[in-house]
Amino acid sequence: MFDLKLAGIKGFIVTAMWVFMALSSHVHANPRYASIVIDADTGAVLHESNADASRYPASLTKMMTLYMLFEAIQQGKMTLDTKMPVSTHAASMPQTNISLRAGETLRVRDAIPALIVRSANDAAAVIAEALGQTESNFGRMMTEKARKMGMNSTTFKNASGLPNYEQKTTARDMVKLSVRLMKDFPQHYHYFSIQSFNYKGTTYNSHNRMVRNTRGVDGLKTGFIRASGFNVATSAKRDNRRVIAVVMGGKTAASRDQHTAALLDRCFNKASAAHIAASDIITIGSPNDRKNLLAEAPIPITKPNVSTDNQPVDPAAILRGELTPVRDLPNNTDLPKNNSWAVQIGSYFEPDRAHAQAQAATRWVAGEVAVVEVEISNRTFYRARLIGLKKNQAHTACQSLSRNGMDCMVVRSHG
């Protein structure tokens, strides 16, 4: 059993090394990318990449709009039942919206989920005018509040995050805002986990799939405009520890979510990774590469697997010794030793999906389709692989798959 676990650790490190070597090209290929992960209790930075680079906040802007609204409630200026007038300006806001009409009113208790679930631009403008008379003045109020929070690289021009060349922020500033929302208004944080709400007979579903799909995630906000790419600020709690992550510039919503989930997994288990002995690492790349990998190598944004409705296996479980390989389908024990490398394409809850994913990879590269069953934390997952490859063949195959938009890892194929 120990040998199997050690083999699993080595396989993971091989994969991680390969990802690290490809890192630079991925990050440079996406100039909008930025990310940061912090420990919510201590403020310690667990990961950062381009965290101070200027970016467009998109609908992450609405977190500040909500902060201002929560503050007004706390100060007694508003209640959840306060009715805010809808102006012609607010009613003219483009999608996404909740189809407000000029002359109507919007209650605060409806405006909050409208911003969080629907990311409604018209509701954001209503709040802005209720608190600042005009949206442009509210933008100045938001910027002033940001400065008081230490968000010195952020300028707000509107309440929604709709495109404005002067509306800029950084990943670090957005994580500061996330922290303040949670700590200053803990009584309102539950709103950020709402997955749907009904307004005037229409049910709106949340854009934030991480809340329902990623272990421990319980809130905050997504955002998108073309200039920004796909952004997310998210918070997760596992085993009485909470981390907050901001990822900006995702190429798709799915790749953003997948990348953020990987960052969360990594940062929750970073301490475990630090205990891996150097002797357990399979040498790939320079010694300096290996040192950087165990320290703070950021994870690049990549395109999602073809099937995006399955959650990735927590790779750090390997490091915690929770991985128990059970069997390979089909059996590959007769493969010669020099053909004992494989390309892993993904991990899935169902074996047929894993098989389909591995089969799809054969459109671009050759290899024998295999499904490897593993148990992690008492859950069964199925890993899609192409096996029977030599080491150099596996690396070449993975490069080819990556060019065709399919995530992959190079691993040892143990019989």
TrEMBL record:
Keyword Cytoplasm: no
Gene Ontology biological-process entries: cell wall organization; peptidoglycan biosynthetic process; proteolysis; regulation of cell shape
GO MF entry, a single one: serine-type D-Ala-D-Ala carboxypeptidase activity
First and last residue of the signal peptide: none
UniProt domain Peptidase S11 D-alanyl-D-alanine carboxypeptidase A N-terminal: residue ranges: 34-252
Active site, UniProt feature: S59 (acyl-ester intermediate), K62 (proton acceptor), S119
Residue span, SPOR domain: 338-412
Domain of life: Bacteria
Stored InterPro entries: Beta-lactam/transpept-like, Peptidase_S11, Peptidase_S11_N, SPOR-like_dom, SPOR-like_sf
Keyword Signal appears in the UniProt entry: yes
Keywords assigned: Carboxypeptidase, Cell shape, Cell wall biogenesis/degradation, Hydrolase, Peptidoglycan synthesis, Protease, Signal
Chain residues that bind substrate: K221
UniProt similarity note: Belongs to the peptidase S11 family.
The protein, known as: D-alanyl-D-alanine carboxypeptidase
